[in-house]
Every structure is written in C-alpha cells, then in structure tokens.
C-alpha cells in the first residue's frame, strides 16, 4: 500500500508548493487515505510556501469520490467521511495561503468540489466538469452544495446534478467557475505562474482575501461593510503595508499596467 506522500506528490518551487494528485490509474479518485494525504500536503504547503497549486498526474484532474470505498460504508461512517472532506477542503479555502487548481481532463464530482475550494481555477481547453451524483444515486458531500452553488449558482449546479451533463472549460468560464482557459497541456505552467504572482503579495492581504471574502459573502450588507472596514484598517497597519505604500509613493514600486491587447 502506498503512503500519503505517494498519493500526493509535493514539490516546493521557490515560494510555491506544487501538489500533484497521484493516483492516475484510478483517475485520481479520492479514497479516505487520499483525503488525509491532501490535508497533510495542504498543511505542509501552508507551513512552507506562500501560495500553492493543485493538479492531477495523468490525463485527468480528479474523478471524485472513490466509488469502490463509498459503496461499502455504513451510514455514520459516510457522514464522518463527508465531514473529513469538509475540514480538508476548508483548510484550502479558508487557510493561510491561496491555492490555484490546474485542471486537465475530468474534474468530476468531488474533483470539482476540490477545485471549488481553491481560489483560482485554470482549466485547459478540453477539460470538463460534471456532477454525476444523480446517476450514481448519491449526493455531493465534499462541500459542493455550498462552494459550487455559490460559484456558478444553484440553478446551474442543479442542472449539472439533475442531467449529469459534462460542461466544457469554456462554458464553465462563462459560468464563472473557471477564471482562465489555456491551451491543452498548459494548465500547470499557468497555474504556477499565477501562484508565483500571488506569493509576492503581502501575506496579510492574501490571508484577508481568502478568509474575509467568503465570510463577508455570508453576512448582511451592513455587517459585511463593517467587517470590511475592520479588515481594511488592520491590513493598513501591518509593517508590510507601510513599507509597500512608501515604496509606491517614493516611486520604487511597479505601476498597474493596462491589460495586454
Ligand atoms: C474510479 C473512479 C471513481 C475512475 N471511483 N474508481 N465520480 C464519477 O462518477 C466519475 C467516474 N469516472 C469516470 O466517469 C471516468 O473514469 C473518467 C471520465 C473520470 C475517466 O475516464 P477514463 O476512460 O479515462 O478512465 P476509466 O477507464 O473509466 O477508469 C480507469 C480506472 O479508474 C477504472 O478502474 P480499473 O480497475 O477498471 O482500471 C475505473 O473504475 C477507475 N475509476 N473513476 C473509483 N470515481 C464527497 S462526495 C463526492 C461525490 C462524487 O464525487 S460523485 C462522482 C464520482
């Protein structure tokens, strides 16, 4: 039996941790041990890196829940298993550093849920998304009813679950579920570039973006605006912000550029 480090390969490249789901013979289907391996790799990345990328070895990002294990689970074990996915994926979504998912091939069921817990999704032309839970007689259990529903809207998610249809990377981009569509074979490279860029941000701002935004989205406008003022003021008081603001005013910092044509 392989150990956790075989299931998720880990590489630290500069300030970016690269996490490779590594069960290509089973299309990176997520077993119980695989969830633990993801949680361990995320915890290590959080300690060692300033941004992370998650990708899949082989042709597919991730085929979701390991259906062979799931079919044998007693009820309470299934509940606890789902809760374990929640805590592992929450350590990505509301952790300390931002993550990109680099998607090729299938991002299906729990694979889409994993991608939805990252902060930016880069998908190759040819990648596809599906929620075949209806066909399998099960339900999303890795946080999708919250994260995917918020990302693309409950109507589109319901459509995907009810029809089981596959959605292309370009359509998913139109739906807001993917931020960048890239040429086949380029998702990892682009994901690493984006992560390296995020790693240069002030650490506190990255932390505030990934922790404050989803919480503020859960608040009333009034509460959200108040929380925003608190976070904004705290960010400004960090030494890093003071230095970066001074750098700009003294013409040492890069200007914002117009987008490439
Ligand atoms: C698996 C799994 C899996 C592949 N659990 N073993 N997820 C699904 O319903 C997706 C099911 N998988 C597929 O539809 C296809 O495998 C793929 C489209 C992802 C890839 O197709 P392909 O042709 O490249 O691979 P394959 O030949 O179908 O699969 C290769 C092997 O991986 C094969 O095992 P083998 O022993 O016959 O070689 C497959 O059985 C195995 N495999 N996917 C177990 N998912 C927290 S709740 C989340 C709820 C869900 O995630 S529901 C969605 C589940």
Overview of this structure, please?
There is one protein chain. The chain is of the alpha/beta class and 261 residues long. α2 packs parallel to α4, α5 packs across α7 and α11 runs antiparallel to α12. The protein has a six-stranded mixed sheet, with helices on both faces. 3-methylmercaptopropionate-CoA (MMPA-CoA) binds next to α3, α4, β5 and α6.
Output the helix-strand order: HEEHEHHEEHEEHHHEHEHHHH
Instruction: Report low-confidence residues grouped into runs of 5 or more.
Output: none
Round the Cα radius of gyration to an integer and report it.
19 Å
* Tally of DSSP β-strands: 9
Largest sheet: 6 strands, mixed
Q: Into which percentage range does the β-strand content fall?
A: 5-15%
Integer average pLDDT: 96
Number of helices: 13
Which bin fits the share of residues in helices? 40-55%
Strand neighbour order, sheet with most strands: 1-2-3-4-6-9
C-alpha termini separation: 51 Å
Class from secondary-structure proportions: alpha/beta
Bound molecules: 3-methylmercaptopropionate-CoA (MMPA-CoA)
Shape: globular
Structure at a glance:
With 261 residues, the protein is an alpha/beta fold.
Provide tags for this entry.
261 residues; alpha/beta; six-stranded mixed β-sheet; three-stranded mixed β-sheet; 13 helices; 15% strand; binds 3-methylmercaptopropionate-CoA (MMPA-CoA)
Layout of helices and strands:
Layout: H1 4-7, E1 8-13, E2 16-21, H2 32-48, E3 51-56, H3 67-70, H4 75-93, E4 99-103, E5 106-108, H5 110-117, E6 120-124, E7 128-130, H6 133-136, H7 144-152, H8 154-163, E8 167-168, H9 169-175, E9 180-182, H10 187-199, H11 203-217, H12 221-237, H13 239-249
Parallel strand pairs: 2-3, 3-4, 4-6, 5-7, 6-9
Antiparallel strand pairs: 1-2, 7-8
The chain binds 3-methylmercaptopropionate-CoA (MMPA-CoA).
